[in-house]
Amino acid sequence: MSQKYSNSPALVLRIGNSRQRRYCFTALSLPLLMASLALWNAGYPWLALLATPPGLCWLARRSREPLQGRALCWNAGRWSLRDAAGEQSLDTVRGFWVGRIVCLRWRYPGQRCYRELLLFGDSATAAELRQLRRRLRLEG
Q: Stretch 95-116: mean pLDDT, rounded?
């Protein structure tokens, strides 16, 4: 829970579908296919045939936004994740950004493992992403 700057304006960032995310993970499939081809040429065709489909499936799953349709909220010093079922509070939201890609790490109260979220530049409006970066910068 963050009480620092708790009188700042509230943030509601609606997470949408991102074409940039799909393009990025689709581009990552090219090195995977090249590595499989190198295995095939090195005399390990069965290893190439066994490793390629799971790798492509993993990339396909990661290319979809897992939190699409939810909203990341910050209000009065507290972070939460809102969806149609309700609102869940979040602990220790940390983040950094490179260009227009924002990476967030949090965990649900009572859990030990952290979750991560990659927000590409087209997964929310520019104003919402700017407000999120400002909030993360204030919280340090």
A: 86
